[in-house]
């Protein structure tokens, strides 16, 4: 699939839950040497977010791809910066993974409206992968455990920010909360749900 355009046929929508992204896609990528998958592998350092269309699996304004974990997530024109928010992903009351949030900043530090959700397998799930790959070379196991699944999308922006993004066809028609305000407000609901989970 490398280098080819990955698009869904008309009428199809790729809209998996966080749990499905971890268990059905990222777990398979990390544990099976040959796995059927519609999500491509991309090198995050070679692509700015506005270049993902046609390279990642795109559904609506969301772009999905696998990449290897890197300490620095820089591109030619900017870098992905963690905002310090990590959410656990739970399945049947077990933590199966986590989701980190990052924002794309231009090289001069200007924050854009591009957001990335980076999905990781939990250490307990990774340990079970290690047990299931006992017969493989250690280097193979290590390289496969380094994969993450990324979902990238562009938040709506205000007119004052329109010079910042790679492209935008939308105009702001009124006063709106910033995407960061909306994001933090949405965490209240998620936090209540997480607190109510059994330990």
From TrEMBL:
Pfam families, sorted: NAM
Keyword Transcription regulation among record annotations: yes
Record's keyword annotation contains Transmembrane helix: no
Gene Ontology terms: biological process: regulation of DNA-templated transcription; system development
Keywords: DNA-binding, Nucleus, Transcription, Transcription regulation
Domain NAC, residue spans: 8-155
Coiled coil: none
An annotated Gene Ontology molecular function: DNA binding
Name the UniProt record assigns to this protein: NAC domain-containing protein
Natural source organism: Clitoria ternatea (Butterfly pea)
């Amino acid at each position: 699939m490398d280098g080819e355009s990955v698009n869904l046929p008309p009428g199809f929508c790729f809209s998996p839950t966080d749990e499905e992204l971890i268990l059905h896609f990222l777990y398979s990528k990390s544990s099976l040497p040959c796995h059927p998958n519609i999500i491509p592998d991309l090198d995050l350092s070679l692509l700015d977010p506005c270049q993902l269309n046609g390279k990642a699996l795109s559904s609506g304004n969301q772009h999905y791809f696998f990449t290897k974990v890197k300490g620095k997530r820089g591109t030619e024109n900017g870098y992905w910066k963690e905002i310090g928010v990590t959410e656990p992903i739970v399945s049947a009351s077990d933590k199966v993974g986590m989701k980190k949030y990052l924002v794309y900043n231009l090289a001069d530090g200007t924050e854009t409206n591009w957001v990335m959700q980076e999905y990781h397998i939990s250490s307990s799930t990774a340990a079970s992968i290690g047990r299931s790959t006992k017969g493989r070379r250690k280097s193979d196991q290590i390289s496969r455990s380094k994969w993450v699944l990324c979902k990238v999308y562009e938040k709506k922006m205000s007119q004052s920010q329109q010079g910042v993004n790679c492209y935008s066809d939308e105009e702001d028609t009124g006063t709106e909360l910033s995407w960061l305000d909306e994001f933090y407000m949405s965490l209240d609901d998620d936090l209540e749900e997480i607190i109510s989970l059994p330990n």
